[in-house]
């Protein structure tokens, strides 16, 4: 259950207890709209009310907080992976550009096709980083 979001955990535990959102809201001293927002991960209950919420739902405060922590770790991991892919693509583009510039200096008879291929690969990598940025870093 620790892999659920905070809201889905509250919803599941509330349903296990056979409670409606209104009944949980009355116990907690809030509106049913507040409970609905909690369950949809649009807001969180006050820190001071967590012990009462945990007791009402039959779990510990630690269990409630672990659910939220697990839900936050996944986006952070995804963002790190996207940043790493972006960095690798830019590094490949840089390497291809440097290689295309250096080869003619070292070998005056370097085939133009090889140089064009290297530059093309570098430009393709840069294009991928820009496309990903426009799409919100979704590789």
Which terms summarize this structure?
6 helices, rod-shaped, 139 residues, mainly alpha, 75% helix
Order of helices and strands: HHHHHH
Into which percent range does the helicity of residues fall? Answer: over 70%
**First and last CA, distance:** 29 Å
Overall outline: rod-shaped
Rg, nearest Å: 26 Å
Number of strands: 0
Briefly note the structural class of the backbone.
mainly alpha
User: Low-confidence segments, ≥5 residues, pLDDT <50?
Assistant: none
* Mean pLDDT reading: 82
Number of helices: 6
Please describe the biggest sheet, giving its number of strands, its sense, and whether it closes into a barrel. none
Strand content: under 5%
Spell out the blueprint of helices and strands:
Elements: H1 6-16, H2 21-28, H3 32-39, H4 50-57, H5 61-106, H6 112-134
Helix pairs in contact: 1-5, 2-3, 5-6
What is the gist of this entry?
This protein is mainly α.
Task: Write up this protein.
- Helix content is 75%, strand content 0%.
- It contains 6 helices and no strands.
- It has helices spanning 6-16, 21-28, 32-39, 50-57, 61-106, 112-134.
- Helix 1 (6-16) runs antiparallel to helix 5 (61-106), helix 2 crosses helix 3 and helix 5 packs antiparallel against helix 6 (112-134).
- The chain is rod-shaped and about 80 Å long.
- The two termini are 29 Å apart.
- The model has no long low-confidence stretch (mean pLDDT 82).
């Amino acid at each position: 259950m620790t892999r659920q979001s905070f809201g889905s955990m509250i919803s599941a535990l509330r349903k296990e207890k056979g409670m409606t959102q209104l009944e949980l809201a009355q116990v907690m001293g809030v509106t049913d709209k507040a409970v609905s927002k909690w369950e949809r991960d649009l807001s969180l209950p006050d820190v001071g009310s967590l012990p009462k919420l945990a007791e009402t739902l039959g779990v510990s405060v630690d269990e409630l907080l672990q659910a939220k922590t697990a839900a936050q770790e996944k986006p952070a991991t995804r963002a790190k992976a996207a940043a790493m892919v972006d960095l690798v693509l830019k590094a490949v583009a840089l390497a291809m550009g440097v290689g295309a510039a250096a080869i003619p200096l070292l070998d005056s008879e370097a085939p133009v096709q090889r140089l064009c291929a290297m530059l093309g690969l570098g430009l393709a990598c840069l294009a991928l980083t820009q496309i990903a940025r426009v799409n919100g870093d979704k590789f």
